[in-house]
Amino acid sequence: MDEEVEAMKAKVGDTIVVEGTHVGDHRRIGVITAVPHEDGSPPYTVRWEDDQHEGILYPGPDTHIKTGN
């Protein structure tokens, strides 16, 4: 079965959500603070809400974007 997968695209200010993949894992939410590629493709610099840590994220299949204003 061929399934076309749309590439993830984001912009600064979007919210990124990483769902827990194992029982007991928690959802992690952050704000995208930098997008190095003009087309909005990953990786992204993200500031995490839970600890304000900022790091580089290469999103996996358990990740989705909530578009900012």
Task: Characterize the structure shown.
The chain has strands spanning 15-18, 28-34, 44-48, 54-57, 63-66. The protein has 69 residues and is mainly beta. It has one domain (15-66). It has a 5-stranded antiparallel beta sheet with strand order 4-3-2-1-5, with no helix packed on it.
Quick structural overview:
The protein has one domain. It is 0% helix and 35% strand.
Features:
single chain; 69 residues; mainly beta; 5-stranded antiparallel beta sheet; 5 strands
Tell me the series of helices and strands, N- to C-terminal. EEEEE
Which structural class best describes the helix and strand composition? mainly beta
Flag low-confidence runs: none
Number of domains: 1
Structural shape? globular
Distance between the termini: 36 Å
Protein name: DUF1918 domain-containing protein
Domain DUF1918: 8-65
Organism: Catellatospora chokoriensis
Write the layout of secondary structure elements.
Elements: E1 15-18, E2 28-34, E3 44-48, E4 54-57, E5 63-66
Antiparallel strand pairs: 1-2, 1-5, 2-3, 3-4
Protein name: DUF1918 domain-containing protein
InterPro entries: DUF1918
Domain DUF1918: 8-65
